[in-house]
Structure prediction request, 444 residues.
Amino acid sequence: MNKPIVAIVGRPNVGKSTFFNKIAGKRISIVEDVPGVTRDRIHADAEWLGHPFTLVDTGGIDPKSDDVLLSQMRAQAQTAMELADVICFFTNARDGLTDDDRDVANLLRRTGKPVLLVVNKVDYLGLNDSMYEFYELGLGDPIGISSVNMLGFGDLLDQIISHFPPEDPSLSAQEETVIQMAIVGRPNVGKSSLTNRLLGQDRTMVSDIPGTTRDAIDTEFTAEDGTVFNIIDTAGMRRKSSIEDESLERYSVLRSVAAIRRCDVALLLVDANDGVTEQDTKIAGLIHEEGKGVIIVVNKWDALEKETGTLEKYKKEVIDRLKFMDYAPVLFISAKTGQRVQTVFDKVKEVFETTRRRITTGVLNDVLNDATDHLQPPLQGTRRLKIYYGTQIGVQPPSFVLFVNDEKLMSFSYERYLENWFRKTFPLEGTPIRFILREKKKED
Prediction:
């Protein structure tokens, strides 16, 4: 399911980040930080009354900066228009309505998106009267909150989820028949070249279709065997230190995050000349944490001088750099020459099926018993973890509930051991797997 995106916008020092941090600080229902990509937390997953969504901190729109006013403001407003399902426009009760607020409101009004007017820093009753002047903006009833004291959060969150788009059952059924594949990676690793090469061979039908608000264009492709793919090409993710305009880069990252979230299989492109970089590792971490199928694609393989054993040595180096993703298949291609590109679609289909693999409860528990007989969980003090039984509860990725005596006794190393045992037993190449622990007393 694609989570709705909620963008927080406004001029600096109106309390946007304080509100964001309160939500991201696990104070409201289920909240998780999205991993990696940059050290700044620019987006976080949250849930309110059973409605999951992604909250985005846009940074301050400062009309009085030295930068060109309209380019800065339009860049943020344009991105909000493309990405957000709901926009929260933050203002400051203590400052009152300012000309900058009016400028931002004018830009947001043109987006056509639901805009909630939030008057922050209503920290005490005497500030309630100051909200009336914000009616001048023509954006509906102001919603008074205090980010510091978490006052009014419930009313604001109720308004936010009321504007979420309804789920379209027919669209969900349609998406199930199409393999969504996202091509992600740093700039200049050959993402667009690979997209063009994939679309240029063995095709029976190619059609450009309008993308969602999260991406400009998706390309649907029907292979000769009738399998339908939707190829999502993304902007490159760069290191923050290499970005001159931070606000633009934040949204370049967010577009790629959104593409990864709605894909079934991600192709992580690595430049053969550079090897696996720190930024590649961060993108890989994001794919892993999102639970997506993944194929590591080493591009520009034609540019390397080779000798006997070069490919195996290079593959080992890739896996060593991405130890947490050692389940991913590695392909070596050249988008420029077409070398081995024909293997990509077949591997995507294999990984897609693997992400949806189901294991019967009987077989699952036989494997669990074999694993614990082969290596018992280590003692922690005087206590030892006991796994009573397990069952699979979901796919994409395959997810298993393990009923145990005390979930605190599960160590990282033993959980890793169980994962490796599962992978040795079942064909799970290309997909992460999830273990969820539930405490259950033996007498139950």
